[in-house]
Amino acid sequence: MVSMKDIAQICGVSVATVSKALNGHQDISRDTREKILRAAEEMGYMTNATARALKTNRTYNLGVLFIDPMHSGLAHDFFSPLLDSIRVESERRGYDITFINRNVGLKQTTYLQHCRYRGVDGVIIASADFKDPMVWELVHSDLPVVTIDHVFNGRIAIMSDNVSGMETLVRYAAERGLRRLAFIHGEMTTVTENRLTGFYRACRELGIPVPEEYVIETAFHDAAGCYAATKKLLGLPVRPECIFFPDDFSYIGGYNAILEAGLRIPEDISAIGYDGIRLAEIVSPRLTTWQQNTNDLGREAAARLIELIEHPKTALIDRFVISGRLLEGGSVAKRVSL
Predict the structure, then answer these.
(1) In angstroms, rounded to a whole number, what is the distance separating the alpha carbons of residues 130 and 157?
(2) Directed axis angle between helix 79-92 and helix 294-310, to 10°?
(3) Distance from C-alpha of 310 to C-alpha of 64, rounded to nearest angstrom
(4) Which of 13, 38, 221, 244 reaches 20 to 30 Å from 71, CA-CA?
């Protein structure tokens, strides 16, 4: 059986250096780490997870809580790349991931009980009802927890730049001479609250009035709900010049409603999405949208959780904001010369 000592002799390094490389420590050079990992793979070295757990008091297993109310599963066009980024970063650092649910066999459990059963070292809450008592139980337990797009006191939060993202989109529309701006937003979560803040703040700074009937709630990732909300806006005595949609997928419902009304995008009405998924690039005209950085959101969540697990006394408990970027398409009209 291949040992770390065998790998150390082949690579000309110490056993301690081999151990650091195999356990994802960052205080050795990249070249040395890759050399050791390559040699370990070629020699057929496998760590003994049970022995490692006994030695470190860790399982090297991270829990991921992902609850999707629209039941899109892992095919969700926003969360799929985010979850994959969590997986890639976790594996790079020597950790596996386990999805947390409410069942062990045929027995129902709480999220915390499932975490205990699986023996996870910590949890990333990627998507959940943050008002759910079982989520609160998990967040306020002694397990290390990192949340995405929601803030709890005393917990690390990885946040997309929803306020500044929406502000940028509003300014973009205003710079193109659009004043009657409507916003179909998702259900009331921290994400929605931040986007509403960005929308109203930018409109106020630009002197753009927002009639109450121009702001409508629907659900995220819900094309049917967005279709109905768009029809409602188009039926107003003074319809908006531009509609902001909750996400790029939901925009498909709005797109269909606009076409059914005999209107053209952007000649008759402009449209702006959110998320920056592939779909925004293939609709015609291409959708102007805000692209969230799902890769950095997932990577940062995994990295911060692992740091909290391995260095609990020095890990920074704070909010970390991940910037996105404007993707300009052809869905916004230009009413004035810049």
Answers:
(1) 13
(2) 40
(3) 18
(4) 244
In the chain, where does DSSP find H-type helix?
4-11, 15-22, 30-43, 49-56, 79-92, 111-118, 133-139, 162-175, 190-206, 223-234, 251-260, 279-282, 294-310
Identify the H or E element spanning 270.
strand 270-272
Helices assigned H by DSSP within 126-222: 133-139, 162-175, 190-206
> What are the pLDDT digits (tens) for 159-177?
999 999 999 999 999 999 9
Say whether pLDDT at 306 is over 60.
yes
Confidence of residue 55 (pLDDT cuts 50, 70, 90): low
Among the listed residues 191, 119, 129, 183, the one whose alpha carbon sits nearest the alpha carbon of residue 161: 191
Residue pair 144/312 in contact (Cβ under 8 Å)? The answer is yes
Least confident of 26-35, 110-119, 173-182, 245-254: 26-35
Alpha-carbon distance of 93 to 267, in angstroms, equals 50
| Tokens at 299, concatenated | 């990577």
